[in-house]
Amino acid sequence: MKNICENLKKLYLSLHKIPSWIWLIPILLLATHVRLLYLTKADIWHDEGYTAAIIKQPLIDIISTTTTDVHPPFYYIIMHFWQLLFGDSIISLRSFSVACGVMTIALLFFLLQKIFSKRIAIFGAFLAALGPFLIRYSDEARMYALAALIGVAATYAFIMAVDRKDKKPWWILYGFLVAIGIYTQYFLALLIPAHFVYLWLKIGGDGTDVIKIFTNKNIWLAAGLCFLLFLPWLPVMISQVGRVSGEFWIPEVNKFTIPTTLSMFLTYDERIVHYFGLLLLPIMLITSLTLAKKFHKYRAAIWLMTIWSFLPMIIIYVLSKGRPVYLDRYFTYSAPAFYSLITIYIGIIFSSKRIRSVGLSIIFILLIGCYMWHVGSKNIAESSWNNTNTAINRINESIKSNDAIISGEIYTYFHTSYYNRTNKEIILLRPDQELNWAGECGLIKKLNTPETSSLNSVKTQRIWLILRAKTYDKYKKQIPPSWLMRQEFRDGDLIIGLYENKK
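Below the sequence we write its predicted structure tokens.
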């Protein structure tokens, strides 16, 4: 037994001498593999259909249309050039997010190595590579994977700005990254308190140190650059906030809201909240507090990751008591910190270089990673599945020259249009109440989309009507009595009816 332990210790010491980038290679290969597995499993859904439509517009139209949306324009601008290079296939649209997801893992590795250790960096990158929440949004043609990448990149630039002697270039980079982060997703601004606390604790952590922070010229340089870069968009953001506070579709928050998000981080399954989700947040906060007190060396870094993980959720949760703006996917940029925090706990608790301690930490990380992947992969496949392509192909294959295709509501328009292979434009049944805040409405106007205010005005003999299962009963009431149903089929959330107009 003694010989085995000695040999294992020698093996560990040998492995520890391996350069960091060598460890990173298999982790990035793993991250790429698990993201490509689900890249095309689900069809394009509504939000991705909107992405596919808006990025084909001229840059000036992308920016002007985004002013009517709730998201800033940076992601769409990047994707405009991406689709010019690679096209608008489902692989092309989503591969940018895959690239962002993999780069996030790489930067997270170097960040954790900088503020903790090589072991924690390996553990953290491994868990983040298998983290179901990051996998899910690395496979979607939306801005959330990019937001996560910028969040990690901005934090890394900030750490370098604090620790390096040549500070000014890093502070400039930090200010620039924060600005483009806010241009990607507004909530990324909520990372700044985590950075502030890290700096405050690094220089001492008392009241007088706050004055030092606010008198630091480099900090003002970064803040000024960020402000100047974002200033042109600031009036737009203010107007968007006003529209959202007037009317929005996001459900109200409740006691399970944050626990559900944390459960989604772990397994992409909200049902876990019924078991320990409600206790997860206080347990992790107490653990952070305990370890920060005991291991003063890592105090600033622990609180950086803790605040990054939870404070954005808490702030938006509180704000949502007035006007709901809380959605799980808006906190994708907090997921890298959450996975890192788990590894930090294990890495610090088993920080001894004894082979038993090292072995236990490796076992725990492998078990957690495998559990997340085993449960999460199944839930990702189930929850993100839709069959829009199959549904619309029924129309593509059976359309006649005089037929009309009608989208019964705005939430069936963009992704069905993406798969429309007929020579006919889909007609949109105009909403009962125009949602002036919705980017979709702004884009529809730009596209000169054919609309109708009433199904009674449709004169063609045959009509293909596309509805959602969720709102089927509501919109079916608008179908004229003269329309006789010839076929009706369901694929996923879509219900498509073929009607003959006897009028």
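Strands lie at 404-407, 427-429, 451-452, 462-468, 483-491, 494-501.
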